[in-house]
Design goal:
The protein is mainly alpha-helical. The chain has helices at 2-7, 10-24, 32-42, 46-65, 77-91, 96-121, 131-143, 157-165, 168-179, 186-199, 201-221, 227-263, and strands at 266-267, 275-277, 280-285, 290-294.
Length: 295
């Protein structure tokens, strides 16, 4: 594996790393193995994988052509484009028309992301999250009836048989996790759960607990909602739990940085980009939002 990694050209390795990082962001992570797990999860429906990558390609071309960002790794362009492609692959089959639609909607998603980012910058630091995907998806759904798209095939019966053999609550949790990438199947949910475990045990526990809690409440109250809406509600509970875990994990580092900067970090006359504090250099890593003092 090490020899293969060294043999790869630098640009190819950087492209693979960026691709895996974009997929990992769907689970609020940047780890390569998490991104590989997400990619494997979506690969359970190959048409969604292909259309997602095509949408990502459309976004990348626009981002680089307009110099919107140096890389799509730490910006919201990549994962929003993937979700747009997954949405098209969820509803429609893979053919020439859906291919062109995915490329064009990916390009449009980059423009929508840039516009929303600029708009929110006037109100302080507010993340766009998946708002560009929602706007672009609604636009794509409005265009779809006017083009010759073919409906997606029905899910394989083998998964229906597996769902019948498993506890209903477990099936609901797996389908909710799969819905995070718009693929509510048992195989996708199981792969995403494995990827989430690679990312964080706390995030995995909170996501499963949130899904179980919401699903149980809907069952106990006998809420008059359809299965698809119940699945969507449970999916949002899992996403909220994962986001809470991601925010909570950054609090200790941010608190330590605040204490360090308040205690000893003062401006240095030797360098405008570094602050000295008794022989230590204060450095900030803006891409992850954390800072530290190091010798």
């Amino acid at each position: 594996m090490v020899a293969l990694t060294r043999a790869l050209p630098g640009r190819a390795l950087a492209a693979i790393d960026a691709l895996l990082s974009v997929h990992a962001q769907l689970l609020f992570s940047h780890k390569r193995w998490v991104g590989l797990g997400v990619l494997a999860a979506v690969s359970c429906r190959p048409r969604q994988t292909l259309l997602g990558l095509l949408a990502l390609l459309g976004t990348t071309v626009v981002v680089r052509a307009l110099s919107l960002a140096n890389t799509i790794r730490y910006t919201p362009y990549g994962y929003n484009a993937l979700l747009v492609g997954y949405m098209i692959g969820h509803d429609y089959a893979f053919d020439g028309v859906s291919l062109v639609l995915a490329l064009s909607m990916g390009a449009l998603c980059a423009l929508v992301t840039a516009a929303l980012s600029l708009l929110l910058s006037y109100f302080g630091w507010l993340p766009v999250l998946s708002a560009p995907f929602i706007v672009t998806a609604w636009f794509a759904l409005g265009v779809a009836p006017h083009v010759a798209l073919t409906g997606a095939p029905v899910a394989e019966p083998v998964w229906s048989n597996a769902a019948a053999a498993l506890p209903p609550l477990f099936v609901q949790v797996l389908r909710a996790l799969g819905s995070c990438v718009l693929s509510p199947s048992l195989a996708t949910g199981a792969c995403l759960l494995a990827a989430l475990l690679l990312h964080s045990r706390i995030a995995s526990l909170l996501a499963v607990a949130g899904s179980v809690l919401v699903s149980s409440l809907l069952e106990l109250t006998q809420a008059p909602v359809s299965d698809s809406l119940s699945q969507l509600i449970t999916c949002n509970a899992a996403l909220a739990a994962m986001a809470s875990a991601a925010c909570g994990s950054s609090l200790p580092a941010a608190h330590g940085c605040w204490r360090c900067s308040r205690r000893c970090c003062l401006p240095s006359s030797h360098s405008a980009s570094r602050n000295r504090c008794g022989g230590s250099a204060y450095r900030s890593t803006s891409c992850r939002g954390t800072s530290r003092c190091s010798a």
